[in-house]
Every structure is written in structure tokens, then in C-alpha cells.
TrEMBL record:
The chain crosses the membrane at residues 9-28, 48-67, 87-107, 141-161, 182-205, 225-247, 259-282, 316-334, 346-371, 397-417, 443-463, 469-492. The keyword Transport applies. This is Transporter. It is found in: Cell membrane. It is a multi-pass membrane protein. It comes from the Bacteria. Belongs to the BCCT transporter (TC 2.A.15) family. Keywords: Cell membrane, Membrane, Transmembrane, Transmembrane helix, Transport. The keyword Hydrolase does not apply. GO terms for molecular function: transmembrane transporter activity. Its main location: membrane.
């Protein structure tokens, strides 16, 4: 039987729209490019302020979260921990986010700014400083704030509230259960198409750069389309194999290898290039960026019409490009970020990749400018319009240039594969509504579509039309991202209050009446048998009496019991909201060896200790109830039941109390 996990409401509209746009771009590339370019230019000229304000809001919001009380909230249960090491996590998000772009624009963008008339061709120093400043601006905190917002929203709603890892879930506080219907499908269709178009155009341009490098190294005679077919065939095959092995194997391993190779190439250029100049220019450039941060953030160049064309072609285009890529990168970042705190997530996603980008752009871009002025007599400036070959021509000014060029091609290839395999992974994730396990043919299908359509568009000259289409989708999606912020603020506010909610003031704290008995309990052996006995006697008696009393008040409470470990649970079931649960189970904990060796506590055993842990059916932190008497335990249950009734009576808490809010994510 033919098995599939594809969701028809998402997959069919997406694939039809992808094929329609691609075919029009292939059959009528000039017409499609002309029409879409007109629409893009109209948006950039008349709605550039939307991009400026949207990106500004993203940056301010994430910086606020970094320092706010919400920063301690974990992307998952309160006791969850990250699934990937810090290095693996950063390597994967970096490789998926900007890999090929750094190789393509590392020399090209600074050189193009350096040669731009808008910065004044008569002042070398001003041109060089502005080239570095605007490259930092386009590849720094603002770009990663876009990715970070999408990744954070997806991670929070997926891992904290147990919703599907899907863009539709980010609207739950606003749309509630409507996210499961047509509105949710529309959001996912938009995300899938945007992801496919973005990856296709980027991979198409990446193939051209690889082909150009191979030609310069005399590995292939020219940039013939036949060679591009061979390159795409090999690389997409590798991407499919990597995607089939999953995030924990292929994608993670390739990302680690690539980050180490990138670091090696970076050190090679830094040490063999104009080292002192690079260190000095990086220091000055970083200070220049910090000093101009807010001016750059809010700049619209409204008072200088001569700068507007440059502003549209660079800053606004970059903001649109990063926004259009954010569903793909954000979904992938979310997939690998479970267990991080919000503060850890924001600091790592905003600052670490940005800092590396600054170093990379300084080392490659400023080296190229230095060689252009001091050695090449303007030779590299003359190639500013040929970014496909510029990186390789720049490397010719360094020793061991052939080795460096081979290394560059290998890095681009691995970036190509990691972008493609993570893209395949994300697209299948969207199209299946986050299915846990999909048949392998679906992975092969997405990879084949990427290969075929990117080659068709590359051959027909339709990549620019598709790129324009991608940039156009960024306008509505920037508005969607603003709604993400509203959803997050609403959810985080409720989250904080939900977990900080105190018990009723009518509850009475323990008195000192039973202090002698409690002292004996404190110093008694905490072995498993004694804790099991506590659960099977004190807890069971307390819950049994409560069950009877609840029944007298027309409330049906059930007792759930199990052994190994001993566990007793009182549950009151509901149809529309979460069940009320109060349970106690025997739980092990490690004991410090200092405590084991302490003479004043001779009964503490080296193998560990046990305690009865109370839990409540949601993600609130549990606690030890071993010193409770039967009546005190009954009182504690009633405190939680009173809190439960108070919370479920408030409409705004619906997202936490609906029946599926505490189901485990697949």
C-alpha cells in the first residue's frame, strides 16, 4: 500500500503554486521577470518603511526579552534540557542560516559598496569604512533578529505549549482552534512556497559559483549547463542522503565539519593577508557599527533622494530576503533548540553568528580592498560586478592560492548540501504537519523537485523572476511576523503568571506542633522501601479519604496506583479542559559524596536516596512531600484543587487548560 504523511490541505495547493510560478518563469522568463520586478520595485519604493519598522520591532523585542523576566523561561518543560551540545547547535543554525551567502558575498559585497558612487569615489577612507559598516549592518543583528523571532516563536509554542512545530501554532493565542482549519493551512502553504522559492534561487546561484570556481581551477573547461547539471545531480544526491539520516547524524556532522573548515579558511586569510590592518580595521569597524547602530536601524534616506536607489537595492532587498527565508531557517532553528532558555536562545542567535559574520566580512572584504589599493591597482574593483568569480580571483593574491580555492569550493559544496538537506527536512516537516516519521520517498521527492526546478530556471534564465517572487512574499510575511510578536507577548505574560500563581491566602502554613516527629523523619534513612511504604500508606489513605469526600460532593475522583516505582494518583476527569491531577511517586536522587562521608549522617547510603515527589499533570515543578502527615497531604491536594478551579474559570488561560495542551509532542 502506498504510504504518505503528506497533508493534502497543505501539499496540494503548495505544489500547484510552486509548479505554476516555476513554469511561468521557465517558459516566459523575460515577461515574468519584468512583471514581478515591477511589483517588487513598487513595494520597495512605496512600502520600504514597512520593512524598516518591522525589522526594528524584531530587534527591540528580542533585546527586551534578553533582559526581561521572561528570559528564564525554558523552551520546553521546566526540567527539559538541550538535545544538542552548544557547539553543534550553533554550527547547525549558522550553516542553515547564511552559509552559501557568506562565501558568495564575503568579498563581493564589501567590494561593491566600496565601488558604489553613492559613497563618493574620491574618498578612499570613507568608501572603505562605509563598505564595512553597511556590510556589518546587512549581515548582523538585524538579519539574525528576523531568523531569531521566527525560531523563538516556533520553539516556544511547540515545546512549551505542546503545539505542532508549525507556523500556524504561532497564532494560537490569537486564533485559538481556528489554527487547525483553513487559516492554519493557508499559513503553512505560504511558508512552504516561500521556503521552496528561497532555497531554489539560492542553490541556483550557488551552483554558478561552484562552476565558476571549478573553471578558474581548470577542473572544468567552462560554465556550460551540462557541468551545472552534473554539479546539481551530485550535490542534491548528497543532500538527500544527509536528510534521510536525520538531524542528529548527517546534518549535524556536515555542519560541524563545515564550521571547522570555515574557521580554517578564515585563519588562513587572516594570517597570510594584511593581518595588522585587518585586526585594526575590525576593531574600528565594530566601534563604528555600535556608534551608528540606531541611525542605521531607523534610516530611510528620505532626505537624500540620490541614495534611495542604493537603499532599495541593498538594505530593503536584504530585509525582504531575510524575511522571505525566515520560515525555513526559523523552522530549522526551532527544531534544534528544544530545552534552551529564552535568554540563552536570544543571546546565541543574535550575537554569536553576527560576531562571526563581522569577522568574516572584515577578513575577506577588507583584505580584498587592501589588495586592490596596494597590490592590484584596481583589478579587484573592476570585478565587483562578477561575484561568481570574485572570491577566487581574490585568493590569487595569497600564497597557496590553489589550495585555498579548492578549500573554498569544498566549503561551498558542503554549505550547498547542508542548506539543501535542512531545506528538504523543513519542507517535509511543513507539508506533513510535523509528522514524526515519513516515508523515504518524500525526502527524495523534495530533493528531486529542488534539483529539477533549479536547473530549469537556471537554464531558462528564470532565477531572477523567482527571486523577485520570493522578495514580494516578504511584505505580507513581515506583517505576519509582527503578529508573532503579539502572540508571544500574550502567551509569555500568561505563562509567567500561570507559574507564579500563589496558593490561596486562606491556606495555613505548617506549625511547629509536630517538630519532634519531623526531626526523626529528616534524619531517617531515605531508602526506596521506606518511601514506597509512605506512598502505599499515608498517601493512599489521604487520597482514599479525599475520594470519598469528593463523591459526597457529587465529584467523581479516581485513584490510579502502580508499583515499581510506587505511585499513587488522584484524578478528576473533565471533557473540555485538562483533568485535575495530583500524584505522588517514589523518585530517586543522587547524594553528594560529602554527605555520604559525613559522620553526623551515618545512615545516608552511597547508592543514593529516594523521596516521594508530588506532580500535578502539567509542567509545573514538582516537590518533596515526605514530611506531610495524612491531613497535611489532604490539605495540599485541596490547595491545588482550589488553584485549579480559580485558573480554569479565567478565559485568558484557555491555551493552558484545553484538553490537548499537556500532550507530549511527537
Amino acid at each position: 500500500m502506498f504510504k504518505t504523511t503528506l497533508n493534502k490541505g497543505i501539499f496540494i495547493p503548495s505544489i500547484l503554486f510552486i509548479l505554476l510560478v516555476s513554469l511561468v518563469s521557465v517558459l516566459y522568463p523575460e515577461m515574468a521577470d519584468k512583471i514581478l520586478n515591477l511589483i517588487k520595485n513598487f513595494i520597495f519604493v512605496n512600502f520600504n518603511w514597512v520593512y524598516v519598522w518591522a525589522v526594528t520591532c524584531f530587534v527591540i523585542f528580542l533585546i527586551y526579552l534578553m533582559f526581561s523576566k521572561y528570559g528564564k523561561i525554558r523552551l520546553g518543560d521546566n526540567d527539559s534540557r538541550p538535545e544538542h551540545s552548544f557547539f553543534s547547535w550553533v554550527a547547525m543554525l549558522f550553516s542553515a542560516g547564511m552559509g552559501i551567502g557568506l562565501m558568495y558575498f564575503g568579498v563581493a559585497e564589501p567590494m561593491q559598496h566600496y565601488t558604489a558612487e553613492v559613497f563618493g569615489l574620491e574618498h578612499y577612507v570613507n568608501r572603505a569604512k562605509n563598505a564595512q559598516l553597511y556590510t556589518f549592518f546587512h549581515w548582523g543583528i538585524h538579519a539574525w533578529a528576523i531568523y531569531g523571532l521566527v525560531g523563538l516563536a516556533l520553539s516556544y509554542f511547540a515545546y512549551r505549549l505542546k503545539l505542532p512545530l508549525s507556523l500556524r501554532s504561532c497564532f494560537y493565542p490569537l486564533l485559538k482552534n481556528k489554527t487547525d482549519g483553513a487559516w492554519g493551512n493557508l499559513i503553512d502553504v505560504f511558508a512552504l512556497c516561500s521556503t521552496f522559492f528561497g532555497i531554489t534561487t539560492t542553490l541556483g546561484f550557488g551552483v554558478v559559483q561552484i562552476n565558476s570556481g571549478l573553471q578558474i581551477l581548470n577542473i572544468v573547461p567552462d560554465t556550460n549547463f551540462l557541468y551545472q547539471i552534473m554539479i546539481v545531480g551530485v550535490l542534491i544526491s548528497l543532500a538527500i542522503i544527509s536528510a534521510l539520516t536525520g538531524v542528529d547524524k548527517g546534518i549535524k556532522i556536515l555542519s560541524k565539519i563545515n564550521v571547522m573548515m570555515v574557521a580554517g579558511l578564515l585563519l588562513f586569510v587572516l594570517l597570510l593577508g594584511p593581518t595588522v590592518f585587518l585586526i585594526g580595521s575590525f576593531t574600528e569597524g565594530l566601534g563604528n557599527y555600535i556608534n551608528n547602530f540606531f541611525n542605521l536601524t531607523f534610516a530611510t534616506h528620505a532626505y537624500d533622494p540620490a541614495e534611495l536607489p542604493w537603499f532599495y537595492d541593498w538594505t530593503i532587498l536584504y530585509w525582504a530576503w531575510w524575511i522571505s527565508w525566515s520560515p525555513y531557517v526559523g523552522l530549522f532553528i526551532a527544531k534544534i533548540s528544544k530545552g534552551r532558555t529564552i535568554r540563552e536562545f536570544v543571546v546565541a542567535v543574535l550575537l554569536l553568528p553576527s560576531l562571526f559574520n563581522f569577522i568574516w566580512m572584515t577578513v575577506f572584504g577588507n583584505s580584498a580592498i587592501w589588495f586592490d589599493v596596494n597590490v592590484g591597482n584596481g583589478a579587484l574593483s573592476a570585478l565587483a560586478g562578477d561575484p561568481d568569480a570574485l572570491m577566487f580571483r581574490f585568493l590569487e593574491y595569497l600564497p597557496f592560492s590553489t589550495v585555498a580555492s579548492f578549500m573554498t569550493i569544498l566549503i561551498v559544496i558542503i554549505f550547498f548540501v547542508t542548506s539543501a538537506d535542512s531545506g528538504i527536512f523543513v519542507m517535509n516537516n511543513i507539508a506533513t504537519k510535523n509528522a514524526v516519521k515519513s516515508p523515504k520517498w518524500q525526502t527524495i521527492l523534495w530533493g528531486s523537485l529542488l534539483a529539477v526546478l533549479s536547473l530549469l530556471l537556471l537554464n531558462a534564465g528564470g532565477l531572477k523572476a523567482l527571486q523577485s517572487m520570493t522578495l514580494i512574499t516578504a511584505l505580507p510575511f513581515s506583517v505576519i511576523l509582527i503578529l508573532f510578536i503579539i502572540s508571544l507577548v500574550k502567551a509569555l505574560t500568561i505563562d509567567q503568571e500561570y507559574y507564579d500563581r500563589s496558593f490561596s491566602k486562606a491556606t495555613v502554613p505548617w506549625s511547629g506542633r509536630l517538630w519532634k516527629e519531623r526531626l526523626k523523619q529528616i534524619v531517617a534513612t531515605k531508602d526506596r522501601a521506606s518511601i514506597d511504604h509512605f506512598v502505599n500508606t499515608v498517601v493512599k489513605e489521604a487520597f482514599t479519604e479525599l475520594q470519598v469526600e469528593f463523591a459526597d460532593n457529587n465529584i467523581l475522583a479516581s485513584l490510579n496506583q502502580q508499583s515499581n516505582p510506587a505511585k499513587m494518583e488522584l484524578e478528576i476527569k473533565y471533557d473540555q479542559i485538562n483533568n485535575f491531577v495530583y500524584g505522588v511517586e517514589t523518585t530517586a536522587k543522587k547524594v553528594s559524596h560529602f554527605l555520604v562521608d559525613e559522620d553526623n549522617l551515618p545512615e545516608v547510603q552511597e547508592k543514593g536516596a529516594f523521596y516521594p515527589k508530588a506532580y500535578f499533570g502539567d509542567t509545573r515543578e514538582s516537590y518533596d512531600v515526605q514530611y506531610f502527615t495524612k491531613n497535611e497531604l489532604i490539605s495540599d491536594v485541596l490547595k491545588h484543587y482550589d488553584r485549579f478551579l480559580d485558573i480554569v474559570s479565567e478565559e485568558r488561560n484557555e491555551m493552558f487548560i484545553r484538553t490537548d495542551s499537556n500532550e507530549k509532542a511527537g
